[in-house]
Amino acid sequence: MSTTPTELPTGRTPGRTWTVRLTGHADRTATVSCSTGACTMPSRSRDVAGLRRFAALHAASHAKAARVRERASCQCWAQSCAAHEGMRVHCSGSTVLVLRHDPAVARVWHLAEVCAACAKLMTHTRVVGLPAPTAPPATAASERRPERSERAGQRVPAPAVAAAPAAVAVGFSSPTPTGGGEEAPRRAPGQARRGQRRGAPRGGQRG
């Protein structure tokens, strides 16, 4: 029988978890709760199906915003591998983000950073996030050979830097696309329309 771990593996930080839960009440209403205190949940309602959709989308938003940490410890290991009890395994492989949800119950959505070995054994689980690839070490400026454009005196544009993922917004429910596209640019006062000569009379009438 496995025992509860007492300390983290050397050089690792605690793995993170997020839990979104749908709770039913005696009066046939339900509420949604999230383990992240900054998230604002909808009010208690009889629309259980709507609350269930909200919970699923909210869990998906946490999964999308989370940046998987390569050196995070396995949360399954921290819980004595209860998610695959009876199937012993040594934690190995890279850290991944998994979503556990039993569709037959449809009440709990649990996200956790776990090792790849445990993720394969956990029931009702799918991998929803991988660690970002490690960038190669930057070459020292003194050792880097100048590009041809630099030797010719031209400036070389700096490489693009990937933006950090956005945090889950307070009260987030689902991504709502903004329709209509971009607004057409307005003409400045006095600016003629395309194809119309400045000063030409309107209506095609000649004096």
Report on the structure:
The protein is of the alpha+beta class and 207 residues long. The chain has helices at 48-65, 75-78, 116-119, 148-151, and strands at residues 17-24, 30-34, 95-100, 108-115, 125-129. Helices cover 14% and strands 15% of the residues. The chain has four helices and five strands. A five-stranded antiparallel beta sheet has the order 2-1-4-3-5.
What labels describe this entry?
207 residues, alpha+beta, 4 helices, 5 strands, globular, disordered N terminus
Summarize this structure briefly.
By secondary structure, the chain is an alpha+beta fold. Helices cover about 15% and strands about 15% of the residues. The protein has helices at about 50-65, 75-80, 115-120, 150; strands at about 15-25, 30-35, 95-100, 110-115, 125-130.
Layout of helices and strands:
Layout: E1 17-24, E2 30-34, H1 48-65, H2 75-78, E3 95-100, E4 108-115, H3 116-119, E5 125-129, H4 148-151
Antiparallel strand pairs: 1-2, 1-4, 3-4, 3-5
- Elements, N to C (H/E): EEHHEEHEH
Largest sheet: 5 strands, antiparallel
Strands across the major sheet, in which order?
A: 2-1-4-3-5
**What kind of assembly state do the chains in view correspond to?**
single chain
Beta-strand portion reads 15-25%
Mean pLDDT: 76
Q: Cα-atom Rg, whole angstroms?
A: 28 Å
The percentage helix is 10-25%
Which secondary-structure class do the elements indicate? alpha+beta
List the total number of helices.
Answer: 4
Which descriptor suits the 3D outline?
A: globular
Distance between the termini: 102 Å
Number of strands: 5
Unreliable stretches covering 5 or more consecutive residues: 1-6, 169-190
